[in-house]
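Archive maintenance. Older records in this collection stored only the sequence; we are now back-filling the structure field for every entry so that each record is complete. The fields below show one back-filled record exactly as it appears after the update. Entries are processed alphabetically, and Capsular polysaccharide biosynthesis protein is next in the queue.

ARCHIVE ENTRY
Title: Capsular polysaccharide biosynthesis protein
Organism field: Jannaschia rubra
Length field: 569
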Amino acid sequence: MNGFNPRVQLDWRRPPQEFFFAPGVDAGLWTTAPLPQMWERRPKGRIAAASVSDYDKFRTATRDYVTSTFRDRIFRSGLLMRTVPVVLENVTTEGHFLAIDGKHILNGAAGTRLRNKYSWANEGHFDADAETAAHFAELRAADPVPPVWEGSIDGLDFVIDTRNAFNFYHFATETLGQLCLVDRDDFTGRVLIHSDRAEVKTFIRDWIDQIFPRLRGRVEFLSGNHSYDRCLSVLNARHLWFQTGASAIDGLEEEAPETPHWLGRVPDRKSMLVLDMNSCDDTLLLLRETALSRIEGGDWSHLPRRFWVGRKSQRHRPMKGEAALTRALAKRGFEIVYFEDYSPLEQVALLAQAEIMMSYHGAGFANMLFASPETHCIEIGTHQTCRFRWRDFLPHTIASGCRYTSLFADFNVDDPAEGPPIRSRPLQAVRLGPDGQRKVLAYVDAILGQVRIDDPDWLAEVARMLARTGDTDALARLLDGHPNQTMADPDMMVQRANLHLAAGDPVAARLLLERAWEMTGNRPFLLERLVLLCERLGVEAPWAKLHAARYPQRAGLLEQKLQRQRRQA
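Back-filled structure field:
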């Protein structure tokens, strides 16, 4: 049963209609104003990833997973999911789960954990996923919309949850931004943050006090069971999407890829993960804006712009190869910093003005929420973090627009060629071997303007990552520095064509795409790009007929792309 042993004991055996609260159907929840548009399009995250393992086993496994992620799990645009203030009545808290009349509210990351735990707890008893899907289908058919509160909210406390108050990632990503909803002069109540553990780290309180000085002295952390007759809280769109119809949230389908990993409004738990990695809550964006406003006008010139983030934490998982890498980075102008040595506002400023931030996988990457769109954030991980933690930081890239690259190395274990069981816990430490270090430094050098890469496979990978992160200046330098390799590699030719398109030269782009097609002859996506470009240019070309003959099963998909292009024109 997945070793299910929850810290919070709920009545997990109840059927979903008795376990989960249904906004707009069950009594006890009101929005403070009519629902706004509950999601909007944002530029999708500028993310890249590759293997820097020394071993074929992990190079292949990581490449396959990264390829399938970009192909099957990434939406056409990023999504901003709204969070609105609500009034709740008859509220109880059990750990960090909030309930109304005993029915648990699905909100954000806590809602995802609740869905997962509910499924795990009922393995061998009943099909919790199927029964939840059937119940939510009935809710969607009714197309419920939460009622609007007509009374006063003066003096009400703001009651929210946090997974814990000692892990920076979870608190900053899931909870801290919710305080933006009450960071105003007319809010006079307390902020009551519920967790299933009593421990509260000092740095958590420091972040609250420095980002939200208006709330200083009114934020309390509580654990255990509590109850409220009436309070303020939040309602987030991520789970509301699965529980309601178009009247509350209209469709996202046009943004999603055609993939078995995404089932639309069906509350499949894989679909929840896909939605989570392609979206960010608006509270993250509000937190970013609030934090950046706090550092305006300050003198942050003493802070480095290129840095490697080290660790002092007791939970530290040492990275083998870190010392050798940081020595090489020091020659490139990097300093070693420890976030623990900086105040919250200094950490915000560090990222806001950073050129390149690097480290191995850890909670500190939540700070890239404050990075500028020009900042490169480079994370060294393992195949394990690739599979199970890579998606954790994707919402931060949507909110900040920064360039986030994950380079997956090896495991710091006795037999790195074999590695540990992929699902072993806790996460295994990183080992960066000599070949991995060479590749990491080549990528850094490409960003900084040093363009000579002798390994043709890694050259193509670096070009691909620069293209994915949108660093067109570095990509242009790289391709200019390797003209022969560029014209011998169809992917690099496509990247050069994209640069021509961005520069307003579609004719040169068409010639390169045609040459790339002639070199491959088996890529339907490339052929479809030619069809789209030729229609855009208004020129006669054989590509549409060739596509119809070669790929008749993709005719409908091509027509969708053409229609989308015509609408955008």
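Update note: The chain has two domains: 16-38+82-250, 40-74+251-448. The first helix runs from residue 16 to 19.
Entry marked complete.
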